[in-house]
Amino acid sequence: MARTGRPKTDTSPVNIRMDREMIRAIDDYRRKQEDLPTRPEVVRRVMMEWLEKQKENVGEE
Question: Out of the domains of life, which is the source (predicted)?
Fold first, then answer.
């Protein structure tokens, strides 16, 4: 489960607004995960996957 307390010192907050449909999609996705990640964790994971894919795509060009 999520840890509480002070955030890690090597991170920076990023605030974004999302429409309700996107939030519902994120919540649906996270409920399908075994560890039930938080919304912020889902966004981090999806972004990391996307960034890794971008690295792969750059190598293919």
Answer: Bacteria
